Inverse folding.
């Protein structure tokens, strides 16, 4: 038993051994299924079934058939009532007596109702009070499900498009072909998103409010798995009826940054059926049109408010950069080094100062003695977590999807895997980064001359 588990642990993944289970095959099937569902939705929206029986007018053949039918001899269908006078007349008395004798007799006398049932002496009367008491019986003691309230899952649960870990290998298949897990069309059919910041994946949902935009709370941050709110609703400049796929920065209390990864709905317009490059372009364009939002009051504890400032909710909506140029040379020289670097984002941080003097008009108008909020620009450092790859023709779909691949900057390993690695390589050994494996495989493709296609570039006139 132990030897079988050890052999299975040392063997490559099943997707690498069986072509039918490979990530590339599942990705192709998922893309075909998306295209089929999209075509069905378009046909359903057009309502082509209503126009199937509609015609602009009778055709020439139908007109000729109608003329031939009119020239033929027509048969007039009439009733037989005018032949009644030709029948011999019968005696009225005989007819009346015969009809009267044939009438059925009433089964019940007239003084008794017809629906009165005859009581059965063998039937026992059941008291109603005792039956009601029986219905109100106690629940079984051994049933633990009784008395528990059923929790309805949130409609925002598992609505993010979660990427699969890119399955990479440095081996060859039985036929000697290179099977490293890198998509064959990575230079022409993919979009890269990097550097992906470290943080918590979530959804930003806005709703319609009756107050002033930016003052009344209209935005809720919900978790990826359960769809539960991560914080209280807060005001923002985002339009109502907007759903954004986001990453809540790990230091959002200090920088107030919410990273926008993708857009699902914008101002009631569904963008999930759009392709990846268009969604990212729409995201950057619409976020650049938003007006800056001033930071709210300090949320730090009272004893630390004089030295530090903490954001009660995110105020900066920063889109994660995307790149349509995914050639092998650009990946090696630009995107992979960019994934290892730290990104800097400018933010506005308030500086709390009291009234300067009684001569200042602003200070004299502050009757409550509240401090005046001044803003200063600071640079927030955001650490990278890895590289995301999206299929360019894919649409946004909830749940884990092979149409999006994840290349993390640091390796994920369990405690048992770390202990085994340290036992083999010593306490100072470090697991290899998946991004390092990805870089080595891209270099091998460049050296072997695989994937030398040049992307289409729009030349300016």
């Amino acid at each position: 038993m132990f030897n079988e588990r050890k052999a299975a642990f040392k063997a490559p993944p099943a997707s690498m051994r069986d072509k039918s289970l490979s990530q590339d095959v599942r990705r192709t099937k998922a893309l075909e299924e998306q295209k089929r569902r999209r075509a069905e939705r378009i046909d359903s929206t057009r309502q082509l079934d209503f126009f199937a029986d509609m015609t602009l007018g009778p055709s020439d053949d139908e007109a000729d058939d109608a003329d031939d039918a009119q020239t033929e001899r027509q048969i007039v269908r009439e009733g037989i009532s005018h032949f009644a006078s030709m029948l011999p007349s019968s005696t009225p008395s005989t007819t009346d007596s015969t009809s009267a004798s044939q009438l059925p007799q009433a089964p019940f006398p007239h003084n008794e109702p017809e629906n009165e049932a005859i009581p059965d002496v063998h039937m026992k009367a059941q008291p109603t009070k005792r039956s009601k008491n029986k219905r109100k019986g106690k629940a079984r003691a051994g049933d633990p499900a009784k008395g528990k309230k059923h929790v309805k899952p949130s409609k925002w649960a598992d609505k993010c498009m979660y990427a699969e870990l890119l399955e990479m290998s440095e081996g060859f298949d039985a036929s000697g072909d290179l099977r490293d897990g890198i998509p064959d069309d990575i230079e022409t059919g993919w979009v890269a998103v990097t550097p992906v910041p470290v943080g918590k994946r979530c959804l930003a949902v806005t709703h319609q409010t009756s107050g002033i935009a930016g003052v009344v709370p209209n935005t809720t941050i919900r978790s990826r798995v359960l769809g539960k709110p991560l914080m209280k609703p807060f005001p923002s400049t985002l339009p109502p009826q907007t759903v954004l796929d986001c990453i809540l920065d790990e230091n959002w209390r200090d920088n107030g940054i919410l990273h926008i990864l993708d857009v699902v709905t914008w101002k009631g317009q569904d963008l999930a059926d759009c392709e990846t490059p268009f969604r990212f372009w729409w995201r950057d364009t619409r976020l650049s049109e938003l007006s800056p939002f001033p930071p709210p009051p300090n949320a730090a504890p009272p004893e630390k408010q004089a030295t530090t400032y903490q954001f009660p909710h995110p105020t900066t909506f920063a889109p994660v950069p995307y790149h349509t140029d995914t050639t092998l040379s650009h990946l090696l020289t630009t995107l992979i080094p960019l994934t290892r670097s730290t990104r800097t984002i400018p933010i506005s941080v308030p500086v709390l100062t009291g009234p300067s003097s009684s001569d200042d008009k602003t200070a004299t108008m502050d009757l409550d003695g509240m401090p005046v909020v001044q803003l200063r620009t600071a640079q927030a450092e955001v650490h990278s977590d890895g590289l995301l790859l999206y299929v360019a023709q894919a649409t946004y779909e909830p749940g884990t999807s092979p149409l999006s691949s994840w290349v993390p900057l640091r390796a994920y390993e369990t405690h048992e895997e770390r202990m085994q690695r340290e036992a083999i390589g010593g306490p100072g050994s470090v697991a290899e980064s998946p991004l390092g494996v990805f870089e080595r495989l891209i270099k091998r493709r460049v050296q072997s001359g695989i994937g030398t296609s040049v992307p289409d570039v729009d030349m300016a006139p």
Summary: The chain has a mean pLDDT of 77. The first strand starts at residue 161 and ends at 165. The radius of gyration is 39 Å. The domain at 23-38+155-349+373-448 is CATH 3.30.470.30 (D-amino Acid Aminotransferase; Chain A, domain 1).
